[in-house]
Structure formats: structure tokens, C-alpha cells
Amino acid sequence: MYSSTVTQFEEPPRKKSPEEIAAEPIPLPPQSAEQPLIWRNVIAIAVLHTVAVYSFATRYHEAQLWTWLWSPFYGLSAGLGITAGAHRLWAHRSYSAKTPLRIFLAMLYCMGGQTCLFKWIRDHRTHHRYTETPADPHDANRGFFFSHVGWLMMRRHPAVKAHGSKVDMSDILADPVIQFADKYYTPIMLFLCFVFPTLVPVYVWGETWTVSILAVTIRYVWLLNATFLVNSFAHMWGNRPYNSHVKPTENPTVSFFTLGEGWHNYHHSFPWDYKAAELGAYGLNPTTGFIELMAWFGLAYNLKTPSKEIVKKISLTKGDGTDSFWGNHYHDTHHSSGERRSIQSR
């Protein structure tokens, strides 16, 4: 059972392993640099979004009921490959997974049609290590549009390349599942992300080719933007009950669209927690429920989480004094202001 494999950190690790990326970002001075636009990406992103929005607005009524069920189901499944796989398992090593689960998560990830696993994980580790600095691939200090999608439309800042290349990726290079998935990423991704989900509606329940193709396009764009929300919205709007020294916030709206990845102030405070939130598998964190279900089946183990005492101490010391919207309120009004001042003065 998963409950027997949860590991609580009574004290923060003295020397963090590669997966337990530092909660406090490394400060870097502002650096101006030329970042030419990648016009191929600009045009592709613009066309994709135009087609998806126009198609949904004008042809939604043409899709059969099974297509309406199939596309969200496929998108949510692909989302789990990103949240439970690329993010919580591989980028942060917040839990361990047996080979069948790792293969399954890698397949789900490829269904999302994003970049190869190695690049995604390296970017995310770089983001945590250098949050809101020139080395952050999607630095929120540069505005909503840049952190949401603009960073994909231009050449990378030299600081991203310089510091990202120093991120320890030895564990990823040693993972045979990731190495296989990345070696054959293009054909696997094209089939799982675009070909297979188009064929199923056409040949199983007789959907038209046009509607099936457009449904795949809409689902693809929707999942991209759901992922982008964590980089933009969750770094700008919300409260910071765990650590007011960093920009990421608690944003329940983002959590709704991202399977639980919007509790971002907590996540940047305790990046090694498999829950990525203070509470467990509640309504706005289905990824945690999935991980715990896999643990119940014996496929996931060593689920890491900080102790309640550590969460309380960090919240009282660094938090902005507000309650976590869905959290356990260790730092709320039942803690006197005197206790907060006492802890902060230590």
C-alpha cells in the first residue's frame, strides 16, 4: 500500500539530490541579449490557435457524442503523462516508479506532443533552479505573453543555454525508458498524438475525417495552453502562503485545468513533494490521486512529502500571512501573530 512508502522529510536535505531542486532560486543579475524571433514557430503557433478556436466556435455541433467524450479523455490522459510523469516523477523524483508504470507514463507523455522528455525535464529543472532570472526559460518577469507562449517564439536567452547546460541530468541519461522514448520520439509522438486519436473516431464510431482532425487539433492546442498556464498565470495571480520570497502563487483555477499543478507557491517551496500541494487527492489535484492509486497497485513507491511541522515552520517564517486556499491552514488564524513574530525573529 502506498501509505507505507511515504517518506517524510523531518529536516530539509543538507545537500539536495538532483531531483530535489532547491526551493530558493539562485539569483542572477539582469542580462540584456538579442533573441531573434523564430518565424517558423510564430507562424505555426498562430495558425494552430486560429484553426483550433475557429473550428471549435463554428463546428462543435458536428461532432458526435463519442468524439466529445474521446477528445477530453485523450487530453486528460496525455496530461497525466506530463504531470505525473515528466514533472513529478522525472523532473523532481518526488516518487519512484516501477518499469511498467514508467513505460506507461512515457507513452502518455508522448500523446501530448510536446518536446522530448530530456529537453522538457532539463527546462523544468532549470526553471526551478533559476526562477524569474535570465536563465529561466519562461521568466515571468518578462510578462504574461512571454511566460505563456512567447518564449517558444524566439531564440533562447544566452543565460538559459549557459546555466541549463550545467543542470545535472545524469539520472535521466541513465533511465532506459527515457532514452528509448527520446531516441524514437518523433515517430512515437506523431502516431500517439495525431494519427491514433484521429483514426479511432473515424473507424470505431464513424466520425468524419474533417471533424476528427479538427478535434485532434483542438485537443492539442488545449493541452498546450493548459501546460502554459503553470508558467504564466500561476506565477502572477494568487496568494503566497508558503513562501512570499518567490513569485509562484496558489491558483485553484490553474489547478482545475492542469490536474493539480496550480498549487505553485507550495510546489516551489517543497518541490520534492509528490503531491505538489499541501493536501492530497482532493478535487483539484487528480494527479496526486493517480500516483496514490499506482502506489496502491505497487507500481509507485517511496512517495516523498515534507512533514507537517516543516510545512508549518516554513509557512510561518516565509509565507505572506494568508491561508492556502485548499490547504491544511497550518499558518492561519489559529496561530497567533506572536508565534509568527517569534519564529521570524529566530
Automatic annotation (TrEMBL):
One of its GO terms (molecular function) is iron ion binding. One of its GO terms (biological process) is unsaturated fatty acid biosynthetic process. The chain crosses the membrane at residues 37-57, 69-91, 103-121, 184-205, 211-230. It is a multi-pass membrane protein. Keywords: Fatty acid biosynthesis, Fatty acid metabolism, Iron, Lipid biosynthesis, Lipid metabolism, Membrane, Oxidoreductase, Transmembrane, Transmembrane helix. CDD domains: Delta9-FADS-like (cd03505). Its cofactor is Fe(2+). GO terms for cellular component: endoplasmic reticulum membrane. Residues 1-28 are annotated as: Disordered. It holds the Pfam family FA_desaturase. It is found in: Membrane. Residues 68-271 form the Fatty acid desaturase domain. Belongs to the fatty acid desaturase type 1 family. The histidine box domains are involved in binding the catalytic metal ions. This is Stearoyl-CoA desaturase 5. It comes from Neodiprion lecontei (Redheaded pine sawfly).
